[in-house]
Amino acid sequence: MPRSVNAVASRARRKKVLKLAKGNFGSRGNVWTVAKNTVEKGLQFAYRDRKNKKRNFRSLWIQRINAAARMSGMTYSEFMGRLNAKGISLNRKVLADLAMNHPKAFEAIVKQVK
After folding, report:
1. Is the pTM of this model over 0.85?
2. Is the pLDDT of residue 108 over 90?
């Protein structure tokens, strides 16, 4: 009996990986072994950076809130502590948006907290 190799599935698998590697420089986009490594590493980075993206945005929001709070004569730590003590439940994303785009509204919140 002849040897059975599922060439259809193998080719489909390779085509899928090469399609993901499309746009890479040189052999990274069209040589199977190099493209496979590139795609695997790229998917690792994508997984890791979906988590890091959340950290980076939280950090950015904190920096923006801190800058706006300091312009009102308060530190970020004081501001957030007093905000929680007053029972005002606005998340950092909303506070950062107010600080950047609606400074008067942010100022009103700071006055409430003081």
Report:
1. no
2. yes
